[in-house]
Structures are given as C-alpha cells and as structure tokens.
Amino acid sequence: MTWTLTSAAVEFGVSKETLKRGLGASGIEIKRGKTFSTREIVRALHGDLKFERTRRERAEANKAEIQVALLARRAMPVNEAQRIFNRLFLPVREAFLAAPALASLVNPGDPEHARQHLENYCDQCLKLCREFKFDEPETV
C-alpha cells in the first residue's frame, strides 16, 4: 500500500508539515504527487528504532574508547613511574642529607647541638618518605 502526504496525514492523524519533516529527516525526497510506503510513513513518524539503537550503541562505544584512551594516557608502568620519581626527588634527598653540615651556620656557638637537631629532623623526614604508601588513599 502506498500513501500520498494528504492520505497519510489523515490516516495517521498528523499534519502534513509534521509528516514532511519526518520524511525529510529520514532522507526521503518529497515531491508533488509522490507516494510513500507504509514503512516510510511509520519511520517518518516514529523514527527507525534499529537505526536509533545502533546510533546509541555507537555513541556509547565511542565514549568508552575515549575513556580508555584517557586512562591510558594517565597510566604508566611502575618502573617508569619509579624512575621519574627517583629523578625528581633524589636532589631533595641529597639536600636533606647535606643539611647537618650547616650546623655551624645555624648555631655557631654550639654546632654539635645544631648538627644533632638537624640530623634528627632530616632522619624523620626521610623516614616519612620511605614509609609512604602509593596504594593507600589520602587522608586530609
């Protein structure tokens, strides 16, 4: 069975303009005197469920791919992270270890007392660094 715009609009209870918009959105050419199949009319009015489902699934797959790509950019092998971490913090560790040598500048009157305090402080700081656990959540 085929339909003209007018007969389909009357039968399906919609305006001709609504039907024209739906047919156009479905990619169907609209010309004067052209007839349309029932399938074309139904798709124009209600959309193509299979097409919409496929479109939604494709969009969800694209979103998942983007999320995987973002995670891949954030993730790196443990040995690479350790190498970067060591390169970054080795100078800080060396500065801590050298701090006790500043004892005579900190307390010229009793450099040995200053050296002991600086050494204790540096040891505590380095111990905190050694005991840090990367897999534990932060506490604020």
Break the fold down into its secondary structure elements and pairings.
Blueprint: E1 2-3, H1 5-12, H2 16-25, E2 36-37, H3 38-46, H4 49-74, H5 78-98, H6 103-106, H7 111-131
Antiparallel strand pairs: 1-2
What does this structure look like?
The chain has 140 residues and is mainly α. The chain folds into 2 domains: 2-48; 77-140, no CATH class. The chain is built from 7 helices and 2 strands, in the order βααβααααα. Strands 1-2 form a two-stranded antiparallel sheet. Helix 2 packs across helix 3 (38-46). The longest helix is centred in the middle third of the chain and has 26 residues, at 49-74. The radius of gyration is 37 Å and the shape is rod-shaped.
Q: Which structural class do you get from the secondary structure elements?
A: mainly alpha
Q: How far is it from the N-terminal to the C-terminal residue, by CA?
A: 71 Å
**Main sheet record:** 2 strands, antiparallel
Number of strands: 2
Mean of the pLDDT scores?
86
Oligomer: single chain
Helix content: over 70%
Physical arrangement of strands within the biggest beta sheet:
1-2
- Run of helices and strands: EHHEHHHHH
Key structural traits:
140 residues; 7 helices; single chain; 2 domains; two-stranded antiparallel sheet; rod-shaped; 2 strands
Task: Give a short overview.
With 140 residues, the chain is an all-alpha fold.
